[in-house]
Design a protein that fits this description.
Chain lengths: ~525, ~375
């Protein structure tokens, strides 16, 4: 049997490498559009300061992009190395968007980024702008395909299980493509990336303005970031994937957990601002609630109920009990695929196969499952409430704080007064980490909230891992953490170095802090 | 549109195309990385070498990423079994590749000899290690790999990392490394001049000789290695289930395809003659033709490995019937069809804009270029 330790270490390694990757991705997603905007202004006005802005912010973009690429390589292969059974079980559906992502997005983005950096003197202005736009399109398309893949993990549509091939198989590609979960995720995630890009440019520009350096350069950058950031943060909040929570059971379970809704409440349910969560007794000791709001957001109606944790668990208990029959019938069918009786039982219970497989965490033979095991499995179907509840609230809180900041920044820049408001500039500098924290917490809510499944209702996390030794996992985890920490130090060092140096690092002779010329003694 | 059997065959070819594309495109970057510390003696020379691939390495690396994605989509059982089985080998590849994006982008951003030299060796590792490991992996595939499935098709690998490093596999690693070095050398010779070019041509000649001798030696050695053969009746359009067949292991089985289809001998011939032609062309200054010849040699060598094993992809040495073949480790009919169309639409576009990017950046990279672009170039 697969040990819990192996599963935990595999999860930890995936979480660490994926969350680390997502330190770099959102900045890329957002900054690339800021580069498009800046370069477009350059092409339209011919004012060279906009070219310098494109090149300087592009330089920082490049430093960040390098680590995005580095850490992305791991993710393309980690499903195979560490999640072998997952890869077999759902590769028929999950592999396709990953491959299309490479064909449609990565090639475009990666080819164009080379020309973006090296093509300034070889391409016409318009050609170079086209390259930048294609790079942005490629970058954002890659987000689309990976979120189609991820959306399918939350809401596995368009696929059916085949006992002959012992895996899920695609039956409707369009359903996978237009999965409402994936669409909501895509909009929410790329918008969050745009906010990150805008916050980065806004913070660094604010710092220049506070120091009174390169003010013409910084003011223009500030203005672009404020406008783009305001639009993006509105998009994140309004088109937040809260709407996606009406879709599918995975999202209902997550919503119950992140709202600490232990019981089903009469519609429309209230929104808890904060609460004292008591996991042991499955209740909140106290809560501050705004009536009606949750029901309105969650269901877009006033009369639809949102199921509470207790109700969800009771439903899942029935599905686990039915799932036992599915697993037993499947075992018979694997021995003899023409066993007519087993086939009939399997067809009847097939929808609950995943729930039956949950018991395999506790016993190799699900027929032997004791009531305690079933109870454990039932309890495992809803993630722990406390981390979900608070992660979600910090994320949303940061979102609103950024909304206020971008609103004020935009207002100030309209009034041409951003440099005259040092408190606003200081606030903008201090808010630099906010989008990253919000992004990471968002992913935590999405992925921890899906547990105990890798594919909701289909494949338990416990069964998804590669059958590696625990020592291998310790070794690889240590390697990743060590390597990544080192790279992060180098990256942050270079980012800080060039951000401090400012546009002078381009060596154009038009800015403060021009570098000494090294080539003479090279 | 196509029946299942045809699509299974088409996907065997397409995976081959992606592997060859990877070896030609990412391969020449890696070859350049392998040569970097040896053909560039001072900082400007090394920057010349790095900047020949500077605008292109990232796009080229996508051949590797897409290759992984395509194997996931088309051969999920292979993706699962091979990458988890070759766990430490795969991690070594990934960790070596980590040096490339940061090496290229960060190296020249700080003007300190130790900093730059560290990243130069990082780029060397990123260029040298992956081809060696891919060669070693192929060497092991040709001998069979110890893995088995349980009744739910959970794969378990029972070998160790060190067992991968057996003599035949190491020879395959040498051939692979030499092949990629030659690929990089022909490209570098085309994009440089003077002393760097002269050193590159010398190194490329050596690589070609190692490659040709190693390849022929491996071919002779292969005669004595037990190959695999499906001993039950194959139904190519059946639902994929690796456990439904029987397999025998016997001497000379890897030669069976050549016996029944003598035209396949063109592949190893292409491997040898292409490499020799690349040397002759490179030394006579026809560097672009040399690159084409080297690319053909690469195609020949990879084609030889594929043709020898067909229909096997990953034979199991411990549970023979678990061996993965092009018939029984593939995706569903629908997924293979979708992925076929996706590849058919996007691959020509990729070739088109990649060619355009090379066209834009064409010409020799010179020391003068590096000095003029002190802050912009890698």
């Amino acid at each position: 049997m697969i040990s819990d330790q192996l599963v935990d270490l595999s999860r930890l390694q995936f979480a660490a490498t994926a969350m680390y990757h997502f330190l770099f991705v959102p900045l890329t997603l957002g900054m690339v559009w800021l580069l498009v905007i800046m370069e477009s202004v350059y092409v339209m006005t011919g004012n060279v300061i906009w070219k310098d802005m494109t090149r300087f912010w592009g330089k920082l973009f490049g430093i960040n992009f390098a680590l995005g690429v580095t850490t992305g390589i791991t993710l393309e292969f980690q499903f195979g190395t560490n999640w072998a059974y997952y890869s077999h079980y759902v590769g028929d559906i999950f592999g396709a968007p990953l491959a299309i992502e490479g064909l449609m997005a990565f090639f475009l983005e990666s080819t164009m980024i080379g020309l973006f950096f090296f093509g300034w003197d070889r391409l016409s202005k318009t050609q170079h702008l086209m390259v930048t736009i294609l790079m942005a399109v490629g970058t954002n398309l890659s987000a689309l395909w990976i979120l189609i893949a991820n959306g399918w993990m939350q809401n596995p549509v368009g696929a059916e299980f085949s006992y002959e091939t012992m895996r899920m198989e695609m039956v409707d590609f369009w359903a996978v493509l237009f999965n409402p979960d994936a669409q909501a995720k895509f909009v929410h995630t790329v918008s969050a990336g745009y906010v990150t890009g805008a916050m980065f440019v806004l913070s660094v520009s604010s710092w220049y303005l506070l120091k009174g350096r390169d003010t013409e350069f910084a003011k223009r950058s500030f203005r672009v970031a404020a406008a783009f950031g305001l639009a993006s943060v509105c998009s994140v909040i309004v088109l937040g994937d809260e709407s996606g929570y009406t879709v599918g059971e995975a999202q209902q379970t997550k919503m119950a957990a992140l709202e600490a809704m232990w019981e089903t409440e009469p519609a429309p349910a209230g929104l808890k601002l904060i609460a004292g969560i008591n996991e042991a007794e499955a209740k909140n000791d106290w809560e501050i609630e705004i009536p009606w709001v949750m029901g309105l957001i969650g269901t877009r109606s006033i009369d639809q109920q949102i199921p509470g944790i207790r109700e969800i668990k009771e439903k899942n208990r029935e599905r686990i009990e039915s799932g036992i029959h599915a697993v037993v019938a499947l075992e018979a069918l694997r021995r003899n695929k023409d066993d007519a009786q087993a086939k009939a039982v399997f067809e009847q219970h097939k929808a609950d196969l995943g729930f039956g497989l949950l018991l395999r965490k506790y016993t190799a033979d699900v027929r032997q499952a004791t009531p305690e095991m079933v109870q454990k499995a039932v309890d495992s179907t809803v993630p722990r409430v406390t981390p979900m509840f608070w992660s979600f609230r910090i994320m949303v809180g940061l979102g609103f704080a950024m909304l206020v900041l971008f609103g004020l920044a935009f207002w100030s820049t309209l009034k041409m007064q951003c440099a005259a408001r040092p408190w606003l500039l200081k606030w903008a500098v201090w808010m630099l980490p906010a989008p990253w924290i919000a992004c990471e917490l968002g992913w935590f809510v999405a992925e921890y909230g899906r547990q105990p499944w890798t594919i909701y209702g289909v494949l338990p996390t416990h069964l998804s891992v590669s059958t590696l030794s625990v020592n291998s996992l310790y070794g690889s985890l240590a390697g990743f953490v060590g390597f990544y920490t080192l790279l992060l130090i180098v990256e942050v060092y270079l980012m800080v170095k060039f951000a401090r140096q400012g546009p002078g690092s381009l060596g154009t002779g038009r800015y403060e802090r021009e570098p000494v010329h090294h080539a003479a003694h090279a | 549109m196509f029946d299942y059997e045809t699509l299974k065959l088409v996907w065997w070819l397409l995976v081959g195309v992606l592997l060859v594309g990877f070896a030609i495109m990412d391969g020449h970057d890696m070859g350049v990385g392998t040569l970097l510390p040896f053909v560039g003696k001072d900082d400007v020379e090394r920057r010349v070498v790095i900047n020949t691939v500077g605008p292109h390495w990232d796009g080229n690396q996508v051949w590797f990423i897409t290759g992984g994605g395509a194997i996931f989509a088309a051969w999920p059982l292979v993706y699962a079994t091979a990458f988890s089985g070759f766990y430490w080998a795969m991690l070594a590849v990934l960790w070596a590749l980590f040096f490339r994006p940061v090496g290229f982008d960060y190296r020249s951003k700080i003007h300190h000899p130790a900093w730059r030299s560290t990243w130069d060796w990082g780029l060397f590792i990123g260029g040298f290690v992956p081809p060696v490991i891919f060669g070693v992996a192929f060497g092991n595939l040709l001998q069979g790999v110890p893995f088995q499935f349980d009744e739910f098709l959970v794969p378990t690998y029972t070998g160790s990392f060190w067992a991968l490093l057996n003599p035949f596999a190491l020879l395959a690693g040498v051939v692979s490394s030499a092949m990629i070095t030659l690929q990089g050398a022909t490209y570098l010779a085309h994009r440089t001049e003077g002393v760097v070019q002269a050193r590159t041509i010398k190194a490329g000649t050596g690589a070609a000789l190692v490659m040709v001798i190693g390849f022929i030696a491996a071919g002779l050695w292969l005669q004595g290695i037990d190959g695999y053969r499906i001993s039950s009746v194959v139904n190519p359009s059946a639902l994929p289930n690796p456990m439904a067949k029987t397999v025998v292991r016997e001497a000379g089985a890897w030669m069976a395809n050549y016996a029944s289809m003598p035209a396949l001998w063109l592949l190893p011939a292409l491997g040898v003659l292409g490499a020799l032609a690349a040397v002759v062309l490179m030394r006579s200054g026809r560097t672009l033709s040399a690159f084409v010849a080297s690319s053909l040699a690469t195609t020949g060598v990879i084609g030889t490995a594929g043709a020898s094993m067909f229909p096997f992809v990953m034979p199991s040495s411990t549970q023979l019937q678990a061996s993965l073949t092009v018939w029984d480790s593939v995706s569903s009919h629908l997924t293979l069809g979708i992925m076929f169309w996706a590849t058919l639409i996007f691959m020509p576009l990729i070739v088109l804009y990649t060619s355009w990017a090379y066209r834009v950046m064409r010409g020799k990279v010179t020391a003068a270029y590096i000095r003029e672009n002190e802050h912009g170039a890698y």
